[in-house]
Amino acid sequence: MRILLRVRPGASRTAVGGRYDGPSGPALVVAVAARAVEGQATKAVLAAVAAEFGVRRSAVRLVRGATSRDKLVEVEGEEKDIQERLERLLA
């Protein structure tokens, strides 16, 4: 399942949750402590998303947005479970 993300690098702590209504539609907000330098924030985002959705890190793949705050990721797993968790996190 593909999920739009809005990344907030340099946060005081890592957190997944909240909604950002951007130009591509509603996106899940992911705040990470890592800075947006040399892909550190992107790596932290993928790890945080994997942990939040209860999947292995290798089950989360970046589709678009390696150098952008707006990212599209693909999460492999039980689509029904992922959709339910996503709806809770966006609320």
TrEMBL record:
Task: Extract the Pfam families matched here.
Answer: DUF167
**Which superkingdom?**
Bacteria
Q: Which family does it belong to?
A: Belongs to the UPF0235 family.
Protein name (database record): UPF0235 protein GCM10009742_76490
